[in-house]
Amino acid sequence: MKQLISYLIVLTLSLATWIVQPALAHSGTLNGIHTIMASDLNAPTGNITFNELPNETLEPVYTPAEYGGDATAPTLTFKAMFAGQSYSRNTATDCPGATALGCIIGNPSNPLSLSTDIRTRVVSIISNPAFSDGRVIATQKNAAYSILFDKDVASVGITVGDLDAVGAVKIKVFDRTGGLLGEVTNSKTGNEYLGFATDDDKEKIAGVQLSLAGAENDGYLIGDISFIQEMPQQVLCQNTAPNNLVVNGSFEKPVLAGVYSFENAIEGWELDQGQYIEINKYINDPRDGRQTVDLDSYNSTTKISQKIATQVGKTYKLTFAFKASYNPATVEHQKLNVHWGNELVEALDKLDSETPWEEKTYNLEAKSTETVLSFDNLNETPNSYGIHLDGVSLNLCQ
């Protein structure tokens, strides 16, 4: 993009791009699924807290009767890995810093099933008062976790606890054939909710696996699991208050004299990570107004945020547009992570060739009197080609 910018400067004026020090934020690839918030699973088919079976139960089996599901709901079984996989013998290459039992390699067999290899470590229920429900799932010697549904589900959410390092735990989602629907790594330490749903809301998820991608020396735990067999269609609110609560949502301030500008802060928005906020004028055909923000510049990534006064329990309609930047040198995935407070709204992914604008809309519930809305590409490999963002609005649903 910088070569293109230089060319444009010769022909016209100048260009723009944002910046941030590289960091992990749900690094990974999603193919047919997307991330969801805990509030998207507020009426689950099943909710397992691990209080349903006796403490120290080994390799628990959860039938619908155990968790209060109906006869059509799935049975869940647990093991460290799936059939067809194995423990790495070269963790320094496969999972640098990880324990040997936590580093899983290979693709699952078709159909997806749990490993019966006698070397596969045991999963068990244990007491842990640090979790609200008092029980968790743990493995031997920091090994992996694999969860098999005997019937496909459309969404699943897992609370992962005792995380010591960002990016150390990898979460993979598989279909019934053992095909990979997507994978991400944790973006927080401590406890983190990780949820996934199929893009078409159909039942396609057959299994979930948590394993180590890096050093996680003290181990990690699963606090609870929720899932829905068929996702209810979200009805976006049609009637909203007229005023946009996002200040400078189309990035029209400051008004640029040239084609781009690098700013430490702009009206309404804070730079949470990165060196600058890059504003482009006329570049990449702005969606709303004359200016956009570019989330990748000077081989660095960016996170911007805005604090918004909200009413607890009220629903808000968030809308924004985004597009990729074409990279003639290589084929790459460009990232956009959207957060509402502490919850990930969605982790978006575009090929650099997908340059038309795409508009996204969500219903978001406020849980405090002030909510931070943020956008970042921190899980992207920085190379000066990144997502462009424009037309951000937030309106109270009426």
Q: What is the CATH-assigned architecture of the largest domain? A: Sandwich
Instruction: Characterize the main sheet.
Output: 7 strands, antiparallel
In the CATH scheme, the class of the largest domain would be Mainly Beta
Helical content class: under 10%
Total beta strand runs: 29
Count the helices. How many?
3
Show unreliable segments.
1-26
- CA(first)-CA(last) distance: 43 Å
- Kindly state the mean pLDDT as a whole number? 87
User: How many structural domains in the coordinates?
Assistant: 2
The spatial strand order of the largest sheet comes to: 1-13-12-15-10-5-4
Structural class: mainly beta
CATH topology of the largest domain: Jelly Rolls
Please tell me what the overall shape is.
globular
The Rg value, from CA coordinates, equals 22 Å
Percent of residues in β-strands = 35-45%
Strand-helix topology:
Layout (H helix, E strand, L loop, with lengths): L1 H10 L16 E3 L2 E4 L9 E3 L12 E2 L1 H4 L8 E4 L6 E2 L3 H4 L9 E2 L17 E5 L7 E5 L5 E9 L1 E9 L5 E6 L5 E6 L4 E9 L6 E8 L8 E8 L31 E4 L6 E4 L3 E5 L9 E4 L1 E2 L2 E2 L1 E7 L5 E9 L9 E8 L2 E9 L6 E8 L4 E7 L11 E9 L2
Antiparallel strand pairs: 1-13, 2-14, 3-16, 4-5, 5-10, 6-7, 8-9, 10-15, 11-14, 11-16, 12-13, 12-15, 17-19, 18-23, 19-20, 20-29, 21-22, 23-28, 24-27, 24-29, 25-26, 25-28
Briefly say what this structure is.
This protein is 5% helix and 41% strand. It is mainly beta and 398 residues long.
Can you describe this structure?
Helix content is 5%, strand content 41%. The protein has helices at 2-11, 64-67, 91-94, and strands spanning 28-30, 33-36, 46-48, 61-62, 76-79, 86-87, 104-105, 123-127, 135-139, 145-153, 155-163, 169-174, 180-185, 190-198, 205-212, 221-228, 260-263, 270-273, 277-281, 291-294, 296-297, 300-301, 303-309, 315-323, 333-340, 343-351, 358-365, 370-376, 388-396. A hairpin with a 2-residue loop joins strand 25 (333-340) and strand 26 (343-351). The chain is globular, with a radius of gyration of 22 Å. It folds into two domains: 2-23 and 240-396, Galactose-binding domain-like (Jelly Rolls, Sandwich), CATH 2.60.120.260; 44-228, Jelly Rolls, CATH 2.60.120. The protein is built from three helices and 29 strands. With 398 residues, the protein is mainly β. The strands form seven sheets. The protein has a seven-stranded antiparallel β-sheet with strand order 1-13-12-15-10-5-4. The model is unreliable at 1-26 (pLDDT under 50).
